[in-house]
Amino acid sequence: MVYHSSYNEVQGCRQMCNMSILPLRTKYKGPAPQLKEDKPDVIDEALRFFKANVLFRNYEVKGPADRVLLWLTYYAKQCLKKIEKSSKQDAEKVLYQFAIENFQIPGDSGFVFGGFFHNPKGRQEADTVRAYFTQMRQELGVRLIELVYKNNPNAPSKWWTCFNKRKFMNLA
C-alpha cells in the first residue's frame, strides 16, 4: 500500500506549482514556515514512509502534499546513492554539497516529475520553489544521515542502502 501525506488535508498552505509549501522543523532559511507544534513534518513522513513507498512503480497523488512527499522520496533515494560507501563524516559533506548544487525544478527540462507538477507562473514563483526545494534538500540530508548512520558512524546501514538498486516509479 502506498502511503500518502497527512498534510493533504491541511488548509491555508501556500500553493505553488500544484504543491503545498508546508511548514518544516528546520534551521535552514527558506520560504517554508517554521512548524510550531512538536509533530512530524513532511520530511519526517517521507523518511518514515520511504521504505514502503520506494517499492512502488505507480503513485496516485491525492493532494498537493503528496507531490512534496513524492519529490522528497525521490531525493532521498538520490542521497542514498551518493553516500553508499561513505563514512558519516564524508556523507555530511557530500549531502550538503548535493543539497546546494544546481538542480531541476518544475518547468525546467529534465525535471523528473513534469507530469505531477505545474510550471511556475513566473520568475518569482520559480525562485520561491527553488528556495523551498533547497531548504527541504538540506534538512532531509541532515535527518537521513542520522538515520543511516545511527548504529555505525563508519558505514551506512545496509537496511537503508539496500534500496539503491530499486527504481522508484521507473526512475533512476
From TrEMBL:
GO molecular function: actin binding
Gene3D superfamilies listed in its UniProt record: Actin-related protein 2/3 complex subunit 3 (1.10.1760.10)
Recorded GO CC terms: Arp2/3 protein complex
Subcellular location: Cytoplasm, Cytoskeleton
A Gene Ontology biological process term: Arp2/3 complex-mediated actin nucleation
Keywords: Actin-binding, Cytoplasm, Cytoskeleton
Quaternary structure (record): Component of the Arp2/3 complex.
Similarity remark: Belongs to the ARPC3 family.
PANTHER family given in the database record: ARP2/3 COMPLEX 21 KD SUBUNIT
Function: Functions as component of the Arp2/3 complex which is involved in regulation of actin polymerization and together with an activating nucleation-promoting factor (NPF) mediates the formation of branched actin networks.
Protein name: Actin-related protein 2/3 complex subunit 3
Lineage of the species this protein comes from: Eukaryota, Amoebozoa, Discosea, Flabellinia, Vannellidae
